[in-house]
């Protein structure tokens, strides 16, 4: 049975047509009615290019009003939008186009060349945002209702194999995420959420969807810039912002001895466990940090600390949002208070699965629960503490790096016999990847790095290459990453 609801942008344009939807740092202002009218118009122009209903439309863009408009145009055409990280290499983008069965590509004007190369290789229709606007609109009726069970968007995450998986987000996932966040954080008529996280990440896109569902303005930045963010909080009545540890650190530095205005009520900190020293520094500066736990598969936050508990439970990611559930499991047994194990979650904001990956779906989803692969424990009051973001995962500036993916690229070079990649602590980024390689023939570091830069996003390229005779392995020849981490720490010292 389908669950039908009026299209959110249609409903919002009807309820509060003249309220502000988007503000930009350049002074551009969009109302909800203007947003709806422009998105509907774009939908008719995209339709003239010829996507079928339910076609997967790829979007490659940095944060912009145009990106938001093209996303909503896809929803009006009932075509899932597939978001690409602009920092990926051509090789990575080609792979993701295949995985998600992308049938059309829309790009920001600045990515015209990359888009053309992708489109030519994959024989895809490709249009820049400017070219879409020049298309003649098709005389059609766009969808004014949405089916909550239908896939709205897709974003990529990697598994331990390093092969990206397309996470499917239904309209219901987005709806449930927005509602559960409002139930927890509250919703004030004065709220304005600053969006500086990339919209091609779930933390960024969720702000756009919250804006339409709540009737709340967002202050949109193309990228994170600490001075622009600081000024927005101080002088543009921003009340909420989503950050990761490294961006939070930069904001605290810019803040110095100043204090944020009383109207600023929440800095949501996610993207991995935050250093305790950072949280203590924020407390000293009276910055209202609220830690969260979430992932692409949970459509943004699924557990969040209450502001009232922020000081008392420093380091905790809070409790599962209403109506989500959270447990800790290890060796097929639910763990007791204080015992460390794998974090498992369920709730209407959790994805129904990975696109065309029954193998991954079978291993990750069990008895209605999502096994996150993340490690943590719950204290005697039910507060979650995240110990690690998967043992192998490297989180650098909020971006996820899977060692197996980098190792696969290194092993493409015939001169490299074995490769092991781990993260080492870095003051700026939290962690950065380094590589240990065993050679079968002579090759220099510059050649290896050049190959990596061609095939990986810049943040995934190893910051150090160490040549070794052997990699540490156990009796079953499994790579012992913990020993590689020890080696990396010694090299740092």
TrEMBL record:
Listed GO MF terms: ATP binding; medium-chain fatty acid-CoA ligase activity; o-succinylbenzoate-CoA ligase activity
The enzyme's E.C. designation: 6.2.1.26
Pathway: Quinol/quinone metabolism; 1,4-dihydroxy-2-naphthoate biosynthesis; 1,4-dihydroxy-2-naphthoate from chorismate: step 5/7; Quinol/quinone metabolism; menaquinone biosynthesis
Keywords: ATP-binding, Ligase, Menaquinone biosynthesis, Nucleotide-binding
Gene Ontology biological process terms from the UniProt entry: fatty acid metabolic process; menaquinone biosynthetic process
Domain AMP-dependent synthetase/ligase: 9-355
Catalytic activity entry: 2-succinylbenzoate + ATP + CoA = 2-succinylbenzoyl-CoA + AMP + diphosphate
Function: Converts 2-succinylbenzoate (OSB) to 2-succinylbenzoyl-CoA (OSB-CoA).
Family, as annotated: Belongs to the ATP-dependent AMP-binding enzyme family. MenE subfamily.
Record-given protein name: 2-succinylbenzoate--CoA ligase
